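Dear support,

I submitted the protein below through the web form. The confirmation email said the job was done, but the results page showed an empty box. After a refresh the structure appeared. I'm attaching both so you can tell me whether what I see now is the final result or a partial one.
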Amino acid sequence: MSRILITSALPYINGIKHLGNLAGSMLPADVFARFQRAQGRDTLFICATDEHGTPAELAAAAAGQDVADYCAEQHQLQKDIALRFGLSFDWFGRSSSHQNRDLTQHFASVLEGQGLIEERVDQMIYSLADKRFLPDRYVEGTCPKCAFEKARGDQCDNCGSLLDPTDLINPYSTISGSRDIEVRDTRHLYLLQSKMQDRLRTWIDGRKDWPQLAKSIANKHLDEGLIDRGITRDLVWGVPVAKDGVARPGFENKVFYVWFDAPVEYIAATQEWADATGGDWKGWWRTDAGADDVRYVEFMGKDNVAFHTVSFPATLLGSGEPWKLVDQLKAFNWLNWYGGKFSTSNRRGVFMDAALDLLPPDLWRWYLIANAPEGSDTAFTWEQFQSAVNRDLADVLGNFVNRILKFNETKMDGTVPDGGEPGELEIALLASVQEKIAALTDNLEALEYRKAAQDLRALWVAGNEYLQVAAPWTAIKTDRDRAAVVVRTAINLVALYARLSAPFIPFSAAIIAEAVGEAGVTAWPSASDATLLDSLPRGRSVKAPEVLFRKIEDDQVAAWTEQFAGVEA
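What the results page shows now:
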């Protein structure tokens, strides 16, 4: 497929995201987007803040702000931090946009026309102390399936079960803490997912490229039998339950459930992008408008998989309209903090803003991709982070770049040297580099991030090993042409590393590229290119950059371990 559509799970609006959020969706999506652009493919990378639902109301109330003002402020904050991390979104939208409102209301209307939405009198928890219904995260209690005592009214974070507030044992209000609650009747709209069971099963069975994690979660929900899901809530902040600007009778004080409107924002954010840039959003999302040639890839943590493999596809398929569905869904496990969870309230773990205050973004990007939580949950440790920075970036890549360019400055006049012909060592190196580029390319296409990082590191190592064997500092004493071949080959490797590393560590890659006169050259190299190690113009001036990666010292690790351990420590 010639065009690539990429969406990352929408970061929720209530505060700065932690490293696990970055590692589980936004960062790998960015690496993939950069890789696809480097190959010359028409790529659209879409994300947005998820702004509706109870947590937004609660967070705004805690901050003493109007919820709309709070969301606007937090959106800009998250956007700025994403840019500082180098996340190359083509558009970073807002689920509170008018595009998402209109599109969500459209889907509700067409789904009802297809017989997939009906009104039901529901029983919901009502707080006598708060004088209001308690939807979703306004109520917590004990999970009926795993006995976790802090399950939320929409989902248990311990076992992953999707819940309704009335499922909880010993529920209480998260507003007041009161257990003075009762169950009352209220009318809501339900999406009849049970009617979509067979269609969804057939569709999911056809997703051959999905990782096992995504398929196993999807099949778990299908095997248990899909339940009809309420798609409206007794809230003020959200998409109004209306059509053509007219509220549905009896639903004047209700909004659509955040998990109904949030995935629609992928499409709506593309419409926001199109409205701002003059692009064609339908050409990316509707097969009757040209989206047949689009390869759509979603990135998310495992806790979001159920909504993206059941509820959102049920919306798109059930509409009866020609919407583009996901081709590949890359799901990640959780990145934990020393085996436990990141916690804002307990000041436990590093969040994205604090990470950037400590160290440059590329150091975090490299560690999080090289240790991506693909096969299982993984735990961040300062010791592993220190090792990844010092050994991979400083000792291998940084050492190679600075070593050869400094030598060239002092011994070869600071230009790409001429003279000499490649020998057996260079021929063998080229074959090895071509093989490793092929493996790196294949693993990035397959969304295998740990393997891809290993491939890239192996390429960096190959350069260091070549220098050790070729030893230009020795050759120059007796054979300047031979030294010229080695130095020229190594400088071409520097340029090659800049292009190959750019999806992973874009800021450092840009510095490396500029050092060898290749600023702005980002095209992904072909593994079959015979000129990989001899493409730079001879005589071009090159100059060693400042130290690319400063090592992390033990005393820094000790200080940060204490600083981010959390109040319970």
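Response: this is the final, complete result; the empty box was a page-load delay. Residues 415 and 540 are 5 Å apart (CA to CA).
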